[in-house]
Every structure is written in C-alpha cells, then in structure tokens.
Amino acid sequence: MENKSLHKDNRSGAQRNYAERAMRPKGTTPRRRKSRITPGMVILRVLACILAFVLVLVITLYFALGMFCSGEINENGKISERLFITVPTFLETGAFKFIPSLYLSKTERDIIVNSNKMGDMDADVDEGLISIGSTGKQNILDIDTTSDKSVGEGSVGESDEPIEIHEISGATYYGTMMVVKDPSRVSLATIYPWRDTGVTLDELVNSHGAVGGINGGLYNSNGNTGGMPYGVIVSNGEIQLNDPTSFAGLVLVGFTESDILQIIDIDGMSAAEVEALVAEKKIRDAVTFQDEASDSNNHFVQLIINDETREMNGMGSGLNPRTAIGQRADGAVLMFVTDGRGKSGHLGASASDLIEVMREYGAVNAANLDGGSSSCMYYDGEYLMTSVTFYYSNSSWKLPAGFVVK
After folding, report:
1. Which terminus of the chain has fewer CB atoms gathered within 10 Å of its CB, N or C?
2. Domain boundary among 115, 143, 169
C-alpha cells in the first residue's frame, strides 16, 4: 500500500497566485470576495449625508438672511431702505429677533431702531371725550380712496348695523376692521383658572356665548401652548392675574364699568398699586401689552390718546401682522387685525399704518395689542383673519384670553 504524506506548502503567496492563474482556463476571471456592509456602516453613511445636507442648508440660510440685513448706514446716520424696514420687523418677532445681531453690531441696530422710534405717550384717557350713543361722525375723517388703502363693504359710520365689517387693503398688508356700536357688548373672555394649554379663538368665542372676537395681550406662546397670560388680566371686574413686574413697559388696555376704553401705563407699579388702580378706575375687562423698544423687546401700545396721535420717527415700527383696538367719540369699539410675514405676499402693517386706519375710522383712543402669529379675528362662525403660520391658516394659535363681542 502506497504511503501518502502531507507536505506543507512553502511557496510564497505570489507563487501560489501565479500557479492558480496558470491553471485557470482562458477567458475566466477570479470570483471577487464580496465586501461585508454592516448596519453600523449604513447608519454612519446616512448620518454623514444628513449632516452634509444640514450644513449646506444652514450656510444657504445664513447668506439668504444676510441679504435682508444688508445695506448701508453712512456717517450721517442715513439708513438704506432695506435695513430701515427689515431690522425693526425682525426685532418685533418672538423667534427671529436674534437674526439682526448675526450681521449688525449693537450700535448699528440701535441707530436703525431709533430711526423708527416712537415718542413717549403717557397722558391719561379723558373720559369726557367719549359720549356713548352720540353719532360721533364729526370725529370720522374722510378716506382717500385714491391712496394705497381701499375700504370695502360699506362706508365708514353710515351703516345702521350694530356690527360692521370693513375690509382694508394697504400697500403692505390686508386687514379687517370690526366696528361694534355698543361698547357694553365687548368684554374679555378667558380660560381662567390658568393651565398649560389654551384654546383657539373660535373656542373662546363660542364657549362664552359671543359672536366674534380678537386676540388680546401678552401670553406664553412657546410651542403654541397658549395657556398662561403675562402681566395683568381683569375679567368681569375680577383680577385673575396680577404680575405687573414680570415685564418692563407694561400698559393696561381695557374697559371700565362705564364702557370707556382705558390705556394706562403701569410700568413700575406693584401688584398692590395695580389692585388699587383697578378699583379706582372701575376696570371691568383688561389685558396688558408691552411698550418697550430695545434689541430684546420691540413692542408698542399707545397709538392715539385723547384724539392726539403718537409722535414717531419713520414708520414707528417694522412691518408685521397686527391687532389693535380703539374707541370712537360715540363709544363704538374698533377692532382691527392685519396679515403679514409673507401671507398673501404681504409684509404686514407698521405703527403708522395702524394710526392712519384708526384715525380714518374716528378713533379718539387706540392701542396696539399682541401681533405676529397671534393676530386673529373671528366673527359669525368663521375666521376673518387667521394666523400667518401654515398649520393654523384656518384657525388661530391657542390663547388664554381675548376680547369678545356678545
């Protein structure tokens, strides 16, 4: 029997490969070993693609936003039109006020803000100028229909309807004016006791047996929670919130028991002083909004006091969606809401726009309320003005309170 023995192959790798190629039939190629792709490698590649996309997106946004904040401020303080409009507009927003600081120094921002700054207005409302039930037509200015503004659905002050709805179209905004002839029908509806989540304006209106309404003052809008107001809230004569020191520059806006609109600066007041003020003035329904211009807060409240308009530089503000409330000499309440921030191609209304419209409708006293995405108007089962946010274009943000019409 033949003995077979195993011998170790001492050839080098190169020699073995040469021998294998020599024995391989012509026209054939060696089968390549498949590379092994693990789940971890797939995840890493996906993450790398996402990171690259986000980086490109951030860089694109940075330069795109930089176009809005580009322009010149010369040594004489003259500001380019783009900066004149966009910087105050950004500073008035809640989520985008940081953008100008990415491109402009504080000194440059201050110059731009001051170019649109409004003068101080601390006069008390003279209740003697309001005579509820009178015609009030002598205080209504004629509307120039040849200007950038047009009015629809009736003439100002001529309708016998208890509630009038007027559509107003400005150069940079579209708005709706609700005129309520009887001021006693206007009150403040709230969700008190406060909670984390508020309700939409239609829910607020309907749950209080009202026919219409608008949004009101400051509140926690982060994440569209809307359940907690800020400052001071008075509803049906009850102080439901009394925290006047929570923000600088707070102004109380609301109605007395005699149905007179009050616009009162409460900046620096203590809770006890506010309580005394509410009792003295017999405030039945009121909210607070902020009048303070800086990098951190660009808000304004007083527009017209005792038939005197507020002095201002430039437009007085940027362009944004707005909500304003006023009162004519005959006691009729004016509620005005505009769009903006790109909705229907509109940037929004300025402080000077609000004053102009309120004057045209005969306002003796008028105030700006919370605007931006909060601005909304509901009447007779439908939204006449809605949020600029895409997801709430047919509704409103959640709110803790709003002025309603019963």
Report:
1. N
2. 115
Give the DSSP letter of residue 38: P
Task: Please identify which residue in the block is written with the tokens 């900066």.
Answer: 83
Nearest 5 degrees, angle CA 167-CA 89-CA 92?
Answer: 95
Place of tokens 């390549």: 32
Alpha carbons 148 and 170: distance in angstroms, whole number: 6
H or E element at residue 202: helix 201-207
Partners of 189 in the β-ladder: 402
pLDDT in tens, 100-148: 888 888 888 888 888 888 899 989 999 999 999 876 444 444 444 333 4
Q: What is the pLDDT of residues 353-388, one digit of tens each?
A: 999 999 999 999 999 999 999 999 999 999 999 977
pTM: 0.82
Helix (H, G, I), strand (E, B) or coil at 250: strand
Q: 224 and 336 share a domain?
A: yes
- Please tell me the total count of domains within the chain: 2
* Inside any domain, residue 20: no
Distances (CA, A) of 166 to 159, 358, 360: 11, 12, 12
Q: Where are the beta strands (DSSP E) in 32-170?
A: 150-151, 163-169
Clarify whether residues 99 and 196 are in a common domain: no
